[in-house]
Amino acid sequence: MYYINFIFILIIYVQINAQSFPFDTIVTFGDSNTDNGNVYNLTNHQWPIVSPYYEGRFTNGLIWLDKLKIPCIKNYAYGDATIDNDNLLVGFTGPNRTLVPGIRQQIVDYLAVNDINNVDLSRTLYVIWASGNEYFIDSNISSDIVVTALLTTVYDLLVVGIKYLIIMNLLPLQLYPGMNLNQNLTTLVINHNNRLISNITQIKLEYPHVSIQIFDIYSLIKTILSNNSLFNFNKVNACWNISNYSIISQCRNPSEYVFIDKYHFTSSIHEIIADNIQQFISSSLSISLKTFSHMNLCIFIFIIKIY
């Protein structure tokens, strides 16, 4: 009876641990929406300008990644990054047009300094957020080409054995300040997101034991912009006027704005993004976590039967 009581307590611990926030580490690849200082360091603190930009972030405060409750953050994102410097368009940043690693190159950098065999993949979440810089660089680029490049980065991670991956779909770029509801951009964004869903659905069939999820950042931001007053945002134009990497003017109340400049969100929006991602992680991975918990439960019940 003594052994049964001990094992029962251990089972309860495993279930609680699995149902709490399941990751110790988050590894991120992306651009300015995720960069928390990489470009700032790369450009010798020239860009983004601090202040008013906050400590190397492309906003006025913390970004979504800062606000997640994950102990270890490995962030490889660089502002102005494209998906693949070698096979698509190249990203440059800052007043000196400094070359930044694309998302695929960021993954290469990560794998070069991290022995994947020593990574606890069951406790590590990978996130890819490509915000569509290709569409700003070349308005005539095909969404098929961009999505194909993005899928290549997904496979780059899958082949090394990762277990958990979140991919952001494309933001409603046509609603950004200065885009003037560009119809061509609207079509590109819709096609991009539809093709991403279709292809990720197929990849899930190829990798049934990997949790691959799309976070619908498109709908979240579009909902905020369409109902900005309900979210206590009075302004959908840019808070700061930036020209040639210089701050021309600033608003006094950035917390009322969706956009801090023409291409980036305020820290208040990042707060909402973080809250939604936090909830998404818990809900979208619940099946995987329950499976993990049940596997441990079955093992311990089997031991009880033996003894």
Automatic annotation (TrEMBL):
Keywords: Hydrolase, Signal. The keyword Signal applies. InterPro entries: GDSL, GDSL_Est/Lipase, SGNH_hydro_sf. It comes from the Eukaryota. GO terms for molecular function: hydrolase activity, acting on ester bonds. Residues 1-18 form the signal peptide. It holds the Pfam family Lipase_GDSL. PANTHER family: GDSL LIPASE/ACYLHYDROLASE FAMILY PROTEIN (AFU_ORTHOLOGUE AFUA_4G14700) (PTHR45648), GDSL LIPASE_ACYLHYDROLASE FAMILY PROTEIN (AFU_ORTHOLOGUE AFUA_4G14700) (PTHR45648:SF22). This is Uncharacterized protein.
